[in-house]
Specification:
Oxidized Rhodanese, domain 1; 2 domains; five-stranded parallel β-sheet; four-stranded parallel β-sheet
Length: 271
């Protein structure tokens, strides 16, 4: 079994296909976060398949650590995660792994879709790594926000809440809970606004465009930013984007609207 020693410098939050291609010789461990059916239809060479549902379904940080170790990943492995490029699957796994203290987690910009479109090889052979001793999880303060913390933030001018759901959800037109609408004062920036698509191939907008998108909405790096969606998945993508832009104090309200909209003691604004 491999040990748990840390042996990396931290890579960027998002990496390009060219960046990853230059590191296929073993500099990083690549994780395909899609379900096994899609992994079998073609994956980045060397990628181990550890789908989101196996990690998100774990009941504790210790259980997440155990499942990651069973997949052959140690705490000392710099990870590059990917999905199809137009979903928050990989960012959700990144959030969960950072939540147990993994030191270096990156997401492939554009996912397998852009990888294949850019002409890089796709493999079909299963990849099985020997089990690793991942070690005990490390709690990372501030990465997640609770409902009580969001309630306290409503009166805090140093905190801004970003609702990454579709505008129809934000405005309460689409009913997704007992109460519909949005958290008072929350700013609506749909998570898909982080992406652009060229001939069906998704990728992040430029850094300059993303900085402008958030700054123009009043979401600035000096603020504590709390992001949320319905159930804490889509919001992980915006969480990771903001981290990549240099925002140092970003939390994901993972319980999201499925909790806020169903509690009797939470305030709601509508259109």
């Amino acid at each position: 079994m491999r040990g748990v020693e840390v042996r990396m410098t931290r890579a960027p939050n998002f990496v390009s296909t060219a960046w990853l291609s230059a590191r296929l010789s073993g500099d990083v461990v690549i994780m395909d976060c899609r379900p096994p059916f899609f992994h079998a239809q073609g994956h980045v060479p060397g990628a181990v398949n550890l789908p989101l549902f196996l990690i998100a379904g774990a009941e504790s940080a210790e259980a997440i650590s155990a499942r990651v170790g069973q997949a052959g990943i140690s705490r000392g492995d710099p990870l590059v995660l990917y999905d199809d490029g137009a979903s928050p699957t990989a960012s959700h796994v990144a959030f969960l792994l950072e939540g147990i203290g993994h030191p270096s987690v990156s997401v492939l910009d554009g996912g397998i879709t852009k990888w294949a479109r850019d002409g890089f090889d796709v493999d079909y052979s299963p990849v099985v790594l020997p089990a690793a001793d991942y070690g005990s999880p490390t709690s990372i303060p501030g990465i997640a926000a609770s409902t009580d913390e969001v309630l306290q933030a409503l009166s805090d001018p140093a905190t801004v809440i970003v609702d990454v759901r579709h505008p129809s959800e934000y405005l309460g037109v689409q009913h997704t809970a007992r109460k519909n609408g949005h958290i008072p004062g929350a700013i609506n920036i749909d998570w898909t606004n982080n992406l652009e698509s060229t001939e069906g191939v998704p990728r992040l907008h430029s850094t300059e465009d993303l900085k402008r998108l958030y700054a123009d909405a009043g979401v600035t790096p000096d603020k504590h930013v709390i992001v949320h969606c319905q159930s804490g998945s889509r919001s992980t993508f915006t969480w990771l984007v903001l981290k990549s832009l240099g925002y140092e104090n970003v939390s994901n309200y993972a319980a999201g609207w499925q909790e806020w909209g169903n509690r009797p003691d939470t305030p709601v604004e509508e259109a």
